[in-house]
Design goal:
about 725 residues; alpha+beta; 5-stranded mixed sheet; 28 helices; about 40% helix; disordered N terminus
Amino acid sequence: MSAEATNPVSDAEAAGPDAPGRRRGRPRIDLRRLGRAALLGATAGPAARDRLPDAIGHVAEAHRAHHPDADLAVLRHAYVLAESSHRGQFRKSGEPYITHPLAVTLILAELGAETTTLTAALLHDTVEDTDVTLDQVRHGFGDEVAYLVDGVTKLEKVDYGAAAEPETFRKMLVATGNDVRVMSIKLADRLHNMRTLGVMRPEKQARIAKVTRDVLIPLAERLGVQALKTELEDLVFAILHPEEYEATRALIADNSGAGDALGAIAEQVSGVLREAGIGAEVLVRPRHFVSVHRVRLKRGELRGSDFGRLLVLVGEDADCYAVLGELHTCFTPVMSEFKDFIAAPKFNLYQSLHTAVAAPDGAVAEVLIRTHRMHKVAEAGVVALGNPYAGNPDGTDGAEDGERVDPTRPGWLSRLLDWQESTPDPDTFWTSLHADLAQDREITVFRADGGAPGMISLPLGATCVDAAYAAHGEAAHGCLGARVNGRLAPLSTVLHDGDTVQLLLAQDATSGPSPQWLDHARTPAARIAITGWLQTHPETAKVPAAAPRPPASVTADRRSGTRLRAELPGAAAGATPPAVRPAGCCTPVPPDEITGFVVRGGSVTVHRTGCASADTMRRHGRAPVTVHWGDTAECRVTLVAESFGRPRLLADLTEAIAGEGVAVVSATVEPPSEQRVRHTYTLQLPDAAQLPALMRAMRDVPGVYDVRRARHPASPVL
């Protein structure tokens, strides 16, 4: 947890105009003075043992501001243990090490964390960096504090090597799944380390900043701790993009009077609300550095009102909408900027009304409208929720397995905990974690079949494939299609917030996904499950290209089992055979007339005579290759069924196919058009001679008026 340094930039600059310390008017703590106070507190006489040490007086002050009745005795006890165990340890910047847990505790106290979290924050490095054991922490402070301290304790590199960092984050995330306060302490720990990173080598600063950017900042956003997220963003910005940071700093300095423009609009807004009889507090909220940088990239030249936003705080939810109505009545609203996060809160608990209004002089101001409670949650996120186990004196929620389940656990965290169990490889876990956290918006879809869970949270851009694995786990391997809002839809359909989804599963337990599903999967859980199935069923994977030299021989098509013979002129006798495979555009099967073409990589694709792709190759001067069917009757074929839409149509078609002893490899259903539906099946036939009977059986299904072999448009010449 330690990071040892002086600041890469000044505290005021690194924190930006919107940093928590500046917003509250609380001065930064002098770490050297705090270190001396810590040492003096440690050497005080017996008379001082029953009073709170002076070194944590500022922590007590911040804590009592949020929790006036808090019992500070446990904080005194925790401080004494932390100071004595860290005595003699120093950070690289020269301060006594105790200054670090004190600073972390202060950050959380200012956000309103309850006493248990602050106690764990004081002790968070004792088990990792001193001789104090977890059992000693448990004996002195209870199971909850011990759980939080263990959750943020890093794994040893001597035991895990290069995997120590990803495995530490895995351990921390699993602990966060049971108690979100674990991640609160980690975020505050990283913030103080980032504030004091300057004496590190530049390459180490950059490495820590990148992990902060890719993992910690998205986690702060998802947990709703905006006060920590914004300062972390500015600190990372200063390290990874120093030129842009300096340009933004200079831009803010050159527009130091920008607040006057917003202040004038704030006075007008306050007057309007007073006349309407709405009690409200109107504040000018400066943007932090990264926010100014983003607005500049979006809008180009900035106006004075672009350097901040107005924040309107009211008492009740209904007052928020009353304020909105007055603003839209008395000012010109910019409707494209309106968002209602009160009726539809963000996945990270954030609630607020967003709008923008134009003043009579043409200046446009963005306005945030929220209650005081919403504002506390918007700033502190899960930290503002306090102790999620306060209702249970034993610290559990009564789970049968004895494992604590946090009632505030968001859907994204549940999904992350699910898929991480399927990724024992630390590199895969680390890559998947980065990808998952990069998706910073969520949607909610509803299951039409009444199964549990009734609501499924998915990242923005998720498809029916993702919904299938979120709802059914590995049973989704047999998914044949879906109904989205009552209409048949292919598995590649992108879902939207509020959609109703019904997943259609095959009854055959041996059914599995096709490699194409990976093109449509957006969640790590779906991608990991599909990849795992394909690795254990290699016969479904695409055939790799053979060596560039194309000799003649006999080779098996691994996808269909059908053996094909290619006769290439000039091939050396006894040379390695090329890969020969049926083309996906026309899926030839015995006894079709066929022709072949050598494609990039030396493999041979086999087309039905008359296939549009084959004709295109001939027109471009490609010489056909003579190919023959071998003696294996098994084959794979793609059929298209055209039908009128009706209930149970997909089930009846699937039953007809299964009745012929044919396996479904994959199936897609296009959205209905004029009451007509098109189904496309890729099927594995044990004998090509069954094809005519299979097509007749499918045509006999009520509502089906045509079944034909797939013929795709000509593909580009390879």
